[in-house]
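Before relying on records like the one below, remember that each one covers exactly one chain. Contacts with other chains, cofactors or solvent are not represented anywhere in the record.
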Amino acid sequence: MNTATRKAKGKRLQKYVCNLILKFFPILSEKDKKIFPYSIECKNQERMKYLWEAYEQAISNSKKLEPLVIIKINNKKPLVVLDAEYFIKLQSEIKKY
């Protein structure tokens, strides 16, 4: 697979994620980090050995946002990778409401 094809594959996942976010947060703008406080890194590749590198990249880009990685491989649904402690804390806060 050449570089242009790999980049196009990644862009498709990014577009998918953007559309999915806008579907559930239609009024979200770039400044609404309180509504959706994540630094998202999208990876559309077959080799998942880079998962921790992708997570580190999301951390380095985060600027006080929670790092989140969306991964996808061919013929499978995208998955989210999020810090376990943050996820459990988030679930406990949701249950309070």
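Strands lie at 38-44, 66-72, 79-82.
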